[in-house]
Amino acid sequence: MAAAAPSRGLIWTAAAVVVAIVTVAGARAAKSALANVADAPVSIPTARVTRGALEPTVYMRGDVRAARQHAITAPPVGGALRILEMAGSGEQATAGGIVLRFDPADQEYALEQAESELREAEQNIIKRRAEIAAGEAADEVALLTARFNVRRAELDARIDPDLIPANEYRIRQVSLEEAQRTLAQTGQDVEARRTVNQAALTVLEESRARAQLAADRARQNLEMLEIRAPINGAVGVRENLDSTTVLYVGMTLPEYRTGDLVGTARPIIDIFDMSELEIRASVNELDRVHLSVGQKVTATSDSAPGVNFPATIRAIGNTSLPQRRSDGPLRRYEVTVELDTSDPRLRPGTRVRLVAAAPPIENVLTVPRQAVFEEDGRTVVYVQAGESFEARDVTVVERGDVRAAVEGIAEGAVVALVRPSAVGTGGAASRAVGPAPSGGAAVGR
Asked: Picking from 23-32, 146-155, 205-214, 332-341, which range would have the lowest pLDDT averaged per residue?
């Protein structure tokens, strides 16, 4: 009889056993591989402490400016002005030439108004003087009449009282007294009218003076609407701050152009004397000690790739500049650099980079900058001791972009370039890298 075929249950059981065996074997292999990786030594990059000279280099950024420049502003004539004519950016201005002209319509109207008021005031004065002259003539007649009446009353009162009745004599005496009182009152009235007339004339003359002043101011405003260049130089047109009521950081505004309205006393044009250019830069307080007046620097700019422009430091600020958020904790000072020779490729407003080589610091111990760490307010380096590293306090004499001068460590010691705890503590350190060059360290940015 033929053998019975294996059942389906036995087949599935056998397959499950095979899968379990494979899984266990794979897990053991993975565990063994991980153990081998853990036992492998960790490689920590190192460098040696060397003695030599550290040559600091100060890097700065600045803007080219004209040593002498003049800002052209809208004249303070009251109210907005419309530009009729103006010089464009890059044009050459000649001293005495017109570079900006405004619409004179409003000022011409103001001048006509002022001249009309002036003529009216002059006519009022002429009229008032004629009235005063007529009044003074009438006052003279009144005074003469009063004096004549007094004289006649005096003659009438001199008669012998025995020659006329007593009542008549008394009447003549009273008439004399009345004539004298009338003369005195007339004199007072004339003097009062003279004072009033003089005051009225003074008021009219003051009105004429105000009208004259308004006319003179209108003429002066008309003259100010044509602005001439005070110096020879290149023209630079400013951004139109009157073109918007909303400003934000990074916003780009168009330049002023013909037809724009300009606010009173608004700067519109700058004229730069191109015969003498300078660079205004800033340096932090740590790098400032490496700079001095008369020190040579090299300027480069993207406007002239590959070209070095020799320059000289002319002045270093003694007071710090206003602190900005991007400056960090270090204070910054202004540095003025003068180009040895002017170059048409460097125009006012051009951004430049400056490099100043400071005198070298001789006979100092240097390590790569990445070997110096800050931990809990301490400055440390990790010195190799056998197969491990130990932290050692050091004093940083000078820092550069490549190397740092330190004290508190022996020459030839091997230091870690990374914090050992960040890599791991197992295994021996890699062999030390050979002595790195001590020169060329850079300071600042």
From this structure: 23-32
User: How many whole angstroms separate alpha carbon 59 and alpha carbon 76?
Assistant: 43
pLDDT, tens digit (0-9, with 9 covering 90-100), for 220-229:
989 999 999 9
**Tens of pLDDT, residues 352-395:** 999 998 888 888 899 998 899 988 888 999 999 888 899 999 99
Residue of 379, 415, 377, 419 lying closest to 399 (CA atoms): 379
| CATH architecture assigned to 81-103+226-271 | Beta Barrel (2.40)
> Which CATH class name applies to 46-55+361-423?
mainly beta
Confirm if 56 and 339 have CB atoms less than 8 A apart: no
The first and second tokens of residue 151, run together, are: 């004289």
Provide the token pair at 36. 């081998």
Tokens 């040579």 correspond to what residue? 296
**What's the predicted TM-score (pTM) here?**
0.53
Cβ-Cβ contacts under 8 Å for 213 (sequence gap 6 or more): none
Contact 295, 357 (CB under 8 A): no
Are 289 and 330 contacting, i.e. CB atoms less than 8 angstroms apart?
no
Rounded distance, CA 184 to CA 182, Å? 5
Question: CATH says 276-357 is which class?
Answer: mainly beta
Angle subtended by helix axes 166-224 and 105-157, to nearest 10: 170
Bigger pLDDT: 66 or 423?
66
